[in-house]
């Protein structure tokens, strides 16, 4: 297996060092994903910017986590599903919804379930959805801006999910209680 380094603020190349220092200050530690992304300062910056932009949108923190978890599950990203399960709890998403998202089953809340189904369809169909699929999420109470924000979430998760697949990013300690293993990756 090709080994990708996990950088610290002191070992990271270029502008990734100061960026990792900022991440450490904000989070209290440097997640392994960010430490790995730092090998390419521009990729780290791109991911961090997109993640920050999602937070500036109109989806609530819980809705953001529904979309993040859904995209990560569909992409079979064990690291991101494990991490976003923690972040979803911090965003006040209930445990039943978090487990449904991890399992790919219906959520107890109809509006959040519509968002999860829409996000999964965007990932699976690479944005080639029917008008009926878009109309369904709009009818559930989301606006056109939020439809586009789901695409931003998917773009953000595409970076992290694919990087984690390519580099085999190890789980962080904070994920110990939420470890998730993709069924498709570990079929008997």
TrEMBL record:
SUPFAM superfamilies, per database record: AhpD-like
Source organism, top-level taxon: Bacteria
Domain Carboxymuconolactone decarboxylase-like: 49-107
Protein name: Carboxymuconolactone decarboxylase-like domain-containing protein
Organism: Paracraurococcus ruber
């Amino acid at each position: 297996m090709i080994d990708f380094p996990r950088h610290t603020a002191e070992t990271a190349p270029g502008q990734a060092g100061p960026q990792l220092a900022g991440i450490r200050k904000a989070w209290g530690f440097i997640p392994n994903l960010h430490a790995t992304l730092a090998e390419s300062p521009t990729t780290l910056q791109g991911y961090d910017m997109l993640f920050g932009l999602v937070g500036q949108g109109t989806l609530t923190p819980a809705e953001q986590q529904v979309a993040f978890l859904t995209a990560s599950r569909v992409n079979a990203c064990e690291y991101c599903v494990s991490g976003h399960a923690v972040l979803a709890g911090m965003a006040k998403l209930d445990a039943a919804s978090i487990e449904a998202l991890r399992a790919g089953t219906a959520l107890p809340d109809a509006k959040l379930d519509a968002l999860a189904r829409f996000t999964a369809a965007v990932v699976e169909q690479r944005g080639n959805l029917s008008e009926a699929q878009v109309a369904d999420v709009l009818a559930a109470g989301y606006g056109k801006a939020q439809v586009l924000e789901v695409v931003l979430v998917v773009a953000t998760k595409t970076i992290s999910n694919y990087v984690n697949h390519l580099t085999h990013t190890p789980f962080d300690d904070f994920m110990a209680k939420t470890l998730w293993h993709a069924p498709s990756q570990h079929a008997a």
